[in-house]
Each structure stands twice: as C-alpha cells, then as structure tokens.
Amino acid sequence: MVQCLKFAPYFETASMFVFHKKTQLQEHLKPFREKGLSIGFVPTMGALHAGHLSLLEKSRTENAFTVISIFVNPTQFNNPDDLLKYPRTLEDDVAKIEELDPHIIVYAPSVSDIYGAHTVSEHFDYDGLENQMEGKHRPGHFDGVGTVVSKLFEIIRPDVAYFGEKDFQQLQIVRKMTQKLGLPVQIKGLPIYRESNGLAMSSRNARLSAAEREKAAVIYKTLKTAQGLFGTKSAEQITNAVLQIFEQEKGIELEYFEIADEATLQPFEEKIPGRHYRAFIAVFVGDVRLIDTIPLN
Ligand code: AMP
C-alpha cells in the first residue's frame, strides 16, 4: 500500500501529497512511471518565490506529473552560519504550491533520508567548470550540489529537470554531470525572475531589510551597465567601471565580478564569433551573500 503523508495536519484545506521519505515517494511514483507518464522535477531549497514558481509552472505544462523537492542541502554550504540562517518555510511553501496546482507532488526529506548516517559529499569532475567563480569562492560547493542533485535524480528518476539561470554556473555544472554520468534526464534552464527594482529573486532576500533590498538594486543596474559597455569596451574597462560603482556604495561589498564564456565559464579575453558571454557577480549586502548574472551578447 502506498503510504503518503497528506499535509492535512498542517492545512485543513490541503489535499496535496507531501512526502518526507523517499521510499514512500518512489512507491507513489511507480504507477506513473509504469504507464510511461513523464515526470518533471524542480529541485529547490524552499522559501519559495515567483522564480521557483515559474520553474514549476513550466514543468506542469510540459509533463504529466511534477515533483518539487524542498531540501536545504547541508553539503553545499561552505559557511555554517549561512546554513543556519537559511530560511525554512515549509508550510508557506506548500500553500504556494497548492495555489499553483495541488497535483504537484512535494518531496521534503530529512537530511538522513537523503544522506543516511554520513552527511558527506562525493567528489565530481566537471571538466574545470567547478574551478571558476562560485567554485573559487565557495570551496566544496559544487561537490555538494552534484551529490544532492545526483541523489535526487536517482530517487525521482525524472524525464526533465528544471533549473534557473540565476545560478547559471550550477545549471552548466548539472548539465555537465548529467552528460558525463549518462543520466537519462533532460536539463532545462529558465530565465531569472526579478523584483520590480531589478533585484533577482532569491530566498536569501528574505534576510534583507527594506532599505537593503532597495540598495541591492545596484547589482542589476551594474549588470545592465556591463551589458551596455560590452559592445565597445574591453573586459578590463568594464571591470574598472564596475569597481568604481561599488567603491561608492556603502553597506554593499563586491566579492567578484567576472565576464566569462557561457559554455566553458573561462574568463573572457577576446570575442570569438559564435560564442556567448555573460557577466557574473557576487556581493555581500550586510552578511547576506547574493549572486546574479546577465547575458552580454
Ligand atoms: P534554490 O532554492 O535557491 O536552490 O533554487 C532552486 C531553483 O530555483 C534553482 O534552479 C535556481 O536557479 C532557481 N531560481 C532561484 N532564484 C530564481 C529566480 N529569481 N528566477 C528563476 N529561477 C530561480
């Protein structure tokens, strides 16, 4: 018998499937798979916002069933304080999903359901993609990402998995991992959802004060400036312009700004016809770390 945890203990009106155990989720998905119905998958760490919901929306239009995972993955956090302060809002998340579509299946596991007794990462070789930007500044981060995504793929066995371009390096790394391991899942990347002031939506934005949110609008403004300069200026000139903007900003610290090739993530040197380039940025607003990215050509 399929055992499921209805969310009713939390929401009287809810009639959704929210699984905390992989065995129960797998049991539930078995008949869908046997009928050959396609399963779309959206991995998240919860504290859902419109960006996450856009991934769900896409998945539900393209698949017979959609599964979302809500799991704050400890092995991808290099900063213990960041892990501790990461917002956890499962009840609100489930309410948002239910409003979008109550047929979406939620998998919200415990750490032990994913990792068993040993919460450790495997090591992955992503052909150098892991050595740039986030990989440089967050040691071990992409081993943690690869570990959790491969475990989730193994549990859910989706046909299609949806990721945001907000974490563009992660998207390329998941594509690489899938290709290298020969996993039978299609990876789709979707555009960034932004607040009205341009700030990329992020679960971490919940930790910003109203004044900090306003201040953080400079991140996207800076990326737009870089995009405008890309046609005529060198990487060095663009980077200098960005550094100047941040020198004048109080309460915001630039961690890195890079222009890189979308496919290899190698730093941009000169324009090669047919290649696509992107600017990537990471900043601290107070102690909250935010990232963003924009295509340049
Ligand atoms: P997270 O919960 O931050 O791990 O994000 C889960 C998924 O949502 C990832 O694939 C992210 O890239 C994606 N995502 C996060 N923020 C946004 C956004 N503002 N717009 C679109 N997708 C996003």
Short description:
The chain has 297 residues and is α/β, with parallel strands linked by helices. It is built from 11 helices and 9 strands.
Strand order of the largest sheet: 1-4-3-2-5-6
Structural class of the secondary structure composition?
alpha/beta
One letter per element, helices H and strands E, the order comes to: EHEHEHHEHHHEHEHHHEEE
Cα-to-Cα separation, first versus last residue: 54 Å
Low-confidence stretches: 1-13
Radius of gyration: 20 Å
Bound molecules: adenosine monophosphate
3D architecture notes:
- The structure is a single chain.
- By secondary structure, the chain is of the alpha/beta class.
- 39% of the residues lie in helices and 18% in strands.
- It is built from eleven helices and nine strands.
- It has helices at residues 22-34, 50-62, 80-85, 90-100, 111-115, 133-137, 141-156, 168-181, 210-215, 217-229, 235-247; strands at residues 18-19, 39-44, 65-70, 105-107, 160-164, 186-190, 252-261, 277-285, 288-295.
- The protein has a six-stranded parallel β-sheet, with helices on both faces.
- Helix 8 (168-181) links the parallel strand 5 (160-164) and strand 6.
- It is globular, with a radius of gyration of 20 Å.
- Bound molecules: adenosine monophosphate.
- Adenosine monophosphate binds at residues 44-45, 51-52, 54-55, 163-164, 166-167, 192-193, 200-203.
